[in-house]
Amino acid sequence: MSSTSQEYDQVIAICRDLFVKKMTDYGSAWRILRLPSLTDQIFIKAQRIRSLQENEVRKVDEDETGEFIGIINYCIMALIQLELGVVDQPDLDVKKASELYDEKIGITKQLMENKNHDYGEAWREMRVSSLTDLILQKLLRVKQIEDNKGKTIVSEGIDANYQDMINYSVFALILMNTLK
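The structure corresponding to this sequence follows.
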């Protein structure tokens, strides 16, 4: 399992680096986004991944890597928004946003390690396309929970779904050998 932990950290380092660079370029403009807007951004990325996986012809020369990284970073933004709430003006500097990023990833990685232990790293035998489908399923669940004003009867909350999408995306990037 230490291999998984190291691979996870390598993927997150790539994602975090991009997050910090975009924060430097754009600031925390994303802080004005409501959760459904972030969910829709993640949905667009997941749909694009599915299209790339299904279509034989690509009109833009890109693979799924950047989209999975985008899903991870948008999910982190959503987890931060869940905690801090939406604002009218950007209010986070790079340092504070990076600290929050690290906090959310730490919690999400711990969840992955717990589930990975219980499931025996079953994800290593999965197809990347199946991970994409699971992300899309989680997104539909999140949309339903949002439509229900955040209320669930017996199901896990929105935060757990965002965390699962992060972990599925990390697994996909590991399986795609992104770490070469």
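DSSP finds six helices and no strands in the chain.
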